[in-house]
């Protein structure tokens, strides 16, 4: 029974990562109504990540995590060649344009909202890109450590807010 549970758990994790790969360059979903201002990992209003190229799961420039965003595209990452090569090796090519989905293809230096799970994989592999904390959704803290993000921040704060342990 334990082996069966482990296989199901692994398949669920794999499904989430595959969902992340499939959704990154896809058409944006219909916007959902939210009554509250999204917050960043510093407990401040979420700032824009990039308007050119237009990023975000909702393609509104912000790393807002939509209700149906299974990949949790909330990390505002600064692309670099190592990360782009890594994510391509994982089956998610972020460098090749796809005119059908209005995806421009990314270059080093550009900002893009990436999956929390993909960012963690890159961290574990030693290729995590820099992040913009002010533009990274607080919702990623359900699976990422703020200290890890802060160590890779281009905008580190003087003091980090308290964070509950992620549920990884």
**Overall 3D shape:** globular
CATH superfamily of the domain at 38-151: Protein of unknown function DUF2237
Tell me what portion of residues adopts beta-strand conformation.
5-15%
- Summarize model confidence as the mean pLDDT: 83
The termini sit apart by 22 Å
Q: Low-confidence spans: pLDDT under 50, at least 5 residues? A: 1-19
CATH architecture descriptor of the domain at 38-151: 2-Layer Sandwich
Helix content bin: 25-40%
Number of strands: 3
What's the story with the biggest beta sheet? 3 strands, antiparallel
Query: How large, in whole angstroms, is the Cα Rg?
Result: 15 Å
CATH topology of the domain at 38-151: Phenylalanyl-tRNA Synthetase, Chain B, domain 1
Supply the helix-strand structural class. Answer: mainly alpha
Q: Order of strands across the biggest sheet?
A: 2-1-3
- Highest CATH level, the class of the domain at 38-151: Alpha Beta
Query: Helical stretch count?
Result: 4
Task: Spell out the helices and strands N to C.
Answer: HEHEHEH
């Amino acid at each position: 029974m334990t082996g069966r549970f482990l296989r199901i758990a692994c398949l669920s994790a794999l499904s989430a990562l595959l969902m992340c790969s499939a959704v990154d360059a896809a058409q944006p979903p219909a916007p959902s109504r939210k009554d509250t201002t999204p917050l960043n990992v510093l407990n401040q209003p979420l700032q824009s990540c990039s308007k050119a190229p237009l990023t975000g799961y909702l393609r509104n420039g912000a790393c807002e995590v939509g209700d149906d965003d299974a990949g949790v595209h909330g990390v505002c990452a600064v692309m670099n060649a190592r990360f782009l090569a890594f994510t391509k090796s994982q089956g998610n090519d972020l460098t090749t344009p796809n005119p059908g989905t209005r995806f421009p293809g990314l270059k080093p230096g550009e900002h893009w909202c990436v999956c929390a799970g993909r960012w963690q994989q890159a961290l574990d592999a030693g290729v995590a890109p820099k992040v913009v904390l002010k533009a990274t959704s607080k919702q990623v803290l359900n699976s990422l450590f703020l200290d890890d993000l802060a160590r890779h921040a281009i905008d580190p704060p003087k003091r980090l807010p308290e964070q509950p342990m992620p549920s990884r």
